[in-house]
Amino acid sequence: MTIKMGVIGLGYWGPNLVRNFCTLSESTLVMGCDLQVERCQKIASLYPSIRFTQNVQEVFESKEINAVAIATPVRTHYPLVKQALAAGKHVLITKPFTDNIAHAEELISLAEQKGLVLQVDHTFIYHPAVEKLKDIVVRGELGDVYYFDSVRINLGLFQADASVTWDLAPHDVSIMEHLISRPVQWVQAVGARHAGQKFESMAYITVQFADNILGHCHVNWLALMKIRLITLGGSRRMVVYDDNLVTEKVKIYDKGVTLNSIEGLYDALVQYRQGDMHAPAIENSEALAREIRHFVHCIKQGTTPITDGRSGLRVVRILAAAEESIRQEGKRIPF
Ligand SMILES: NC(=O)c1ccc[n+]([C@@H]2O[C@H](COP(=O)([O-])OP(=O)(O)OC[C@H]3O[C@@H](n4cnc5c(N)ncnc54)[C@H](O)[C@@H]3O)[C@@H](O)[C@H]2O)c1
């Protein structure tokens, strides 16, 4: 069975979905949709066999289309996903899933009632480097995980209708949540608005997970340099993922500390371990291509996506708590 797709939203990210659905042999892109005619025309010049519309109802009413990918601003996610599910279409929705918890919960129930696949486009979860990190954590190579730390900063792109917390942080929060895979105890965040913006352009988000694992994400649109760095520290090893590197993106360091407390002595003996580093081979393939293959596979096999509505909701809960904490000047928000 070939999955017949519609893509809604042809701005910055939508054309990447179009390209990937057109490339995959198990899917055919039938229709593209954007409110702006010039965005449709631009894609039409590259893909002449696709039909285009500015009216999203045409996509939902099409009998031929069985799944849609939606790449529109976050405020439109809830109404568009709801209509798509109500029309019986499987849905791939760009991050963040929704801008509030209640809407995410409602969409999850609707997808379950209808028996439809609902996948959230947390692209990095399908990145071979993140898959390698997950494998390293699950196999216990780090020992007990102590912390997750990420920096995602650069100059731009300011979003007109979303803060850096809702726009950039979903990447790191989804990766952190996926790797740590523990209940959240509390979230604390501070942020700042600059250059006359309505929304925060930088934020420091701290998440306390169960088992004493601390997570931290630093996101900033007003930074001098572009940094995409994730570090995980554990009792046996530490691992670094630098997404800016072309090769050797992931490096595992055999570094750590051992505390030998000697009975009867108050002072603990701290021993630092400075061992070797190794960079595992990482497959060179596009995360979005892998993700789209997964979406189509889940529809065909009737299986649940890795980044289903529930994982999207867990990310939304952390983002909503971070936003609330920023509003309350850094108050801890308990879960
Ligand atoms: N995974 C990633 O790495 C990644 C990267 C960038 C953006 N995104 C996500 O993709 C989504 C879109 O972001 P963008 O940067 O492409 O935004 P954008 O503003 O460039 O494009 C959005 C498009 O949606 C269209 N649109 C809005 N409402 C519509 C409607 N009701 N019907 C049809 N078209 C409609 C707009 O006309 C616009 O062309 C967001 O959720 C964003 O977070 C994901």
Overview of this protein structure:
This protein is of the alpha/beta class and 335 residues long. The protein has 2 domains: 3-124 and 287-306, 3-Layer(aba) Sandwich (Rossmann fold), CATH 3.40.50; 125-284 and 317-334, Dihydrodipicolinate Reductase, domain 2 (2-Layer Sandwich), CATH 3.30.360. Helices cover 33% and strands 32% of the residues. The chain is built from 10 helices and 15 strands. The strands form 2 sheets. Strands 14-13-12-11-7-10-9-8-15 form a 9-stranded mixed sheet. A 6-stranded parallel sheet has the order 3-2-1-4-5-6, sandwiched between helices. A hairpin with a 3-residue loop joins strand 11 and strand 12 (238-242). The longest helix is centred in the last third of the chain and has 19 residues, at 309-327. The protein is globular, with a radius of gyration of 21 Å. Nicotinamide-adenine-dinucleotide binds next to loops.
Topology of helices and strands:
Layout: E1 3-8, H1 14-23, E2 27-33, H2 37-46, E3 51-53, H3 56-61, E4 67-70, H4 77-86, E5 90-94, H5 101-114, E6 118-121, H6 128-138, E7 145-155, H7 164-167, H8 169-180, E8 184-192, E9 202-209, E10 213-220, E11 222-234, E12 238-242, E13 250-261, E14 268-278, H9 287-301, H10 309-327, E15 333-334
Parallel strand pairs: 1-2, 1-4, 2-3, 4-5, 5-6, 7-10
Antiparallel strand pairs: 7-11, 8-9, 8-15, 9-10, 11-12, 12-13, 13-14
Helix pairs in contact: 4-5, 5-10, 6-8, 8-10
The structure holds nicotinamide-adenine-dinucleotide.
